[in-house]
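Structure tokens please, single chain.
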Amino acid sequence: MQQEKPYSQACENNKPFILEKLTLIFHTPATILEVGTGTGQHAVHFAGHLPHLTWQPSDHPDNYQLCQPWLEDCRLGNILAPVALDVGEADWPVPEIHGAFSANTAHIMAWEEVQAMFSGLGQRLPENGAFCLYGPFNYNGTYTSDSNRQFDQYLRARNARMGIRHIEDMEAMAGDNDLFLESDFEMPANNRFLVWRKR
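Here you go.
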């Protein structure tokens, strides 16, 4: 039953807008790694609407089974079993991938973990492979809205290693991992949809 499954209102709110962009990027058959699957609501929605994709859920070893109720309920054949992924580890337990997606992770991870995520994807994505990253980001050293400023303060009060990342830092770090920012889409609720492409 619905109430027995983990639930994120943010996922419900943003999934149609994210799907619209994913449809533009991942339009041919491919295996897509989702970093930070969380509740599984995104995985089920995107795999259900994009049957040409094979969706690989993953999350931190302490959290990777959270999505299981949603996956079991939908029984979609194009969603693989979730894997425990610590982005800081050298060996990722994932199949060969053609693209990647992650939502609302860069501001939750420590900066070193964001770097590790980009490093790992830079090593595993094929040439021209895309990494789609959704969430809030700062531009020109400042917040894009007052609500993002408040959110950043909330995050840093919880854990000083968390916080909204600066797009300029992201681009420099991505470049070190053979990834470049191909597209930057404005999204509802002061979020962005960034498309990083493997050189």
